[in-house]
Amino acid sequence: MTAYQMLNVDEVRVFCIGNYPEILVYDPFTLDILFSLAARIQPDWISALHILRPPRRNDEVVLGVTTAGWVKVWTVSERDVRPREPIFEHESKMIHSLNARCLVCCTYNQRTVLVVSQGDWQIYDAGDFSQLCRVCVGPGEHWMGGDFLSADRIIVWTDQGQAYIYKLPTNCIVESRAFHNKQVEGDNPVMYGIVRPKTEEQLINAPAWQFMTIPLESGAEKLLMRGDCEGQIKLWRLADVSDHQLQQIQQAWAAMMPPPIGVLDQLEGEKNPPRISASLFLPLQGRLACGREDGSIILVPATETIMLHLLHGKHHDYHNWAQPMVLRGHQGRVNCLLYPHGRAHGMTWPIWCLGAWTSQSAFVVQAGQVLQLLVPPPSCTPRIQNCILSVSEDHSVALLSIKERKLVLLASKHLYPVSAIKWRPEHDFLMVATQDGSVYVWQMETGHLDRVLQGVTAEEVLGACDEHSTASGGGAGGAGSEVGLANPAVHLFRGLRHRNLAAIRHAAQRGIQQVLGEQNNYQDIHDSSKMRTCPLMIQGLRTNKQDANSHVLFFDIEALIVQLLSDEYTLMSPGTLEAHELIMSSQYQRMNILTHPASPEAAKKIAEFFGKVKDKAGEMEKKMKEKDKHGLLSRMKEGAESVQNMIQNKVEQTGFRPMSLSTCKDGNSSRVQIPRHLDVTAQTLQIGQMLMSLLHSWGLDQSLDHTCEHILGLLKPRVPVSYGLISKSGYMSLFMPTWHPVRPADMPPMTIPPELASELPPEMIQLEHHTQVFTGRGHWEVSPALTTHHLLALVSVANTLQDMNAATLIPEQERRRKNYIQSSKANTGSVGTNSSGEDEFSRQQSVIKQGWSTLTALHTVLLPDCVTAAGAPCYQPPMVEILARRWQDRCQEVREAAQALLKDRAKPHGDGREAAAGASRGRPAPPRPSPLPTAPPMQGGGGSSGGVQGGGGERGMEPHPHLDEDHYDEEMDGETCREIIAQSEGRRKQATAIILLGVIGAYHGQDAAEGFGLGTLAMQTSKALAYLVLAPPGSKLPAHNPLRRAAIDLIGRGFPVWEPYLDVAKVLLALLDFCADTDRLAPSMKYGLPLIPEADTCRTASNALTLIAEARPPAFITTMAREVARFNALQQNAQSLQLNIHNTVLHRAKTEILRVMEYLIVHKRCHIMDLMVEVMDIILHCVDAGHLKSRGLNEVFPSICGFPQVSHCPHTRRIATGAKNGAIAMYELRASKCQVIPAHTAPITAVSFSPDGKYLASYSMGENKLSFWQTSSGMFGLGASQTKCTKTFSTMPVPDIVRLNPQRLPKLVWISNRTVVHMMADGTEHRFNA
Question: Which parts of this chain are annotated as the region Disordered (predicted)?
Answer without folding.
Answer: 901-974
